[in-house]
Amino acid sequence: MFSQIEIKETLYSSLKALGLTNHEIELYTTSLSLGPVSISQLAKQLNINRPNIYKIISELENHGLAKFSERKKHNRTFMVESPTLVRELLAKKRESLSEQDVKLYSALPDLLTLYRQGELPTSVKIFEGKDQFLKIFFEVLDESKNEIIYCGSVQDLISGFIGWAQEEKWIAQRLKKQIFMKALIFGGSDAEKLKLDDAKQKRETRYIKNMQNFPTSFHLYANKIIIWQPKTPLALLIEDEYIVTMFRSIFQVLWEQNK
Prior knowledge:
Helix content is 54%, strand content 18%. By secondary structure, the chain is of the alpha+beta class. The protein folds into 2 domains: 4-87, Winged helix-like DNA-binding domain superfamily/Winged helix DNA-binding domain (Arc Repressor Mutant, subunit A), CATH 1.10.10.10; 123-257, Endonuclease, Chain A, CATH 3.30.870.10. The model has no long low-confidence stretch (mean pLDDT 85).
């Protein structure tokens, strides 16, 4: 059983989630226990003058949570709708938000291409541990649109840490989203396996030459760069259009040099 305090807090949170103001919530909860009541009685109970009571009632009516009796105007009483309707309205709002979330998720890559950081501070986040590492690894696909750039060691990233099962799952999701990939990588068995499937996996792979091998790597996508350090493991996510532009420029030079 809920206590009276818990019941009131639950109702307050639900009404707040529907966008009601504190005055509207107070009127609703007071009227709920009073039942059908005249405006004068309600004004006296809440210590609010009649004009303001009518304004608050009007807002409650807009939310679909208030109604007047069908009597003649001067004899009408006011009452609020049942809490059952509050639950129904919350369910509709959740459904609407869920639909909007799906639309926003689909539009996110396009929105990020429009985003200009300007004077906003650089965002730097560090993700540690395998769970966090894999989470951000797959989030690369959520925010990418037409192309993803990768540079570094696939041997250390795939065989050394995430495994081919996760890599193939990632590739499948990328292909489903029709995202092309440029990969500039060090040679090795994993690199050869990737390059062999370039044509059917919407990817162009080139080998890095004349450079000492290193275990780290990075992804460039949207307005972000993720630097992977699989030895610890950790991932460094940087959101800064100027840093991303610099890395893109460096990548492009290396890409041309390693045709």
